[in-house]
Task: structure prediction
Amino acid sequence: MTTQTVKEEDREIPLPRQPEVNLGTLGHVDNGKSTLVQALSGVWTAKHSEEMRRGITIRVGYADTAFYKCTKCGIYGTKEICTSCGSPAEFVRAVSIVDCPGHHSLMVTMLSGAALMDGALLVLSATEKCPQPQDREHLTAAEVVGINKIVIVQNKIDVVSRERVLESFKEIQAFVKGTVAESAPIIPISAQRSINIDALIEAIEKTIPTPKRELSKPPLMSIVRSFDVNRPGTQAEEITGGVLGGSIYQGIFKVGDKVEISPGIRVEKGGKTYYESLHTEITSLHVGGRNAAEATCGGLVGVGTLLDPSLTKADGLVGNIVGKPKQLPPVFDSLSLDVQLFERAIGTEELTKVEKIRTNEALVLNAGTAVTSGIVTSVRNSTVDASLRRPICLEANSRISISRRLGDSWRLIGFGIVKG
Result:
């Protein structure tokens, strides 16, 4: 799906192996997450024109990189030659990095990216009092989606005094106390100047293992991006089919596989509107900066298809699930959820109290990379029934993130478990 781009040479370098694990970035909008990804991979993930103009990440970004360990001095890095002593470095692991937006108005997009993470880098800035509103909200979101392998990155230590670094360190310790990140290592760095990146990689290797994968199960992939890769004016006979980007969470896909995409696209026939799954063939797989005959779990994968690129352009198929025909999870156009609400809306400055969900209330629901809105049809104790504007493909007992409109943004207020 992506390649590691080495800036000084302006060329793509394939990774030694397919990425084994997805690392994510969490934290407030100004904490330097995209700069950290660039320090680790050489890739600036904010490539959308509006991202470039505003200087923030809007869509989920991604980059691949590889970690190495010097055979002589034991220092970690991202190159085959140790930058400290010049000795050969041994390949340790290939990783994909998922860069999520930190702006409060983009929390729903952040939750989609978090669904792909095997572990996370919680990026906090030494220049700001900790926590900022989205620091708190992102850490809570990590717990909601089940992320419990975390490394804390104390960024921007190069632009503050030693006293402020120590004060910031204490603020971070107080912030994470009693959370899933309480025992996480805190690594002080400067992403801008690539200071202490070796120590950060070492902490990642010790803290975030490669998870056990279910390779024998039918393959399934969550779509987090989709593209039309054809240039304007491309002749009809030269058009390349639509490309899907995401992460395989079980099984193995191969070039030539027939696949189904569910819940698919919106169709209107005979005055009725419904969603219809798509069927296509995998024509190519792109993993770790190279084409491959097959792709397995771990890392971010680009899947070439025979789909009309008009269906995949501008992230048109984000939130769908790819699998073998008739081997996908069921599609729901309504849900019954066993709901647990937070006491406070985490991302608000004033920590607004979360009121009970009401009948006819509009909510935004995140299930994996899928985002849909729902209208509450009934509330019974902790059970909430909702009719969905857009159906979603997922297993019973899946965890759903629940957001409510508070002020000008959708705020995370709790989660629910899908009843069978």
Notes: Helices lie at 33-41, 49-54, 107-114, 133-145, 162-176, 197-207, 309-312. The chain is about 15% helix and 40% strand. The radius of gyration is 22 Å.
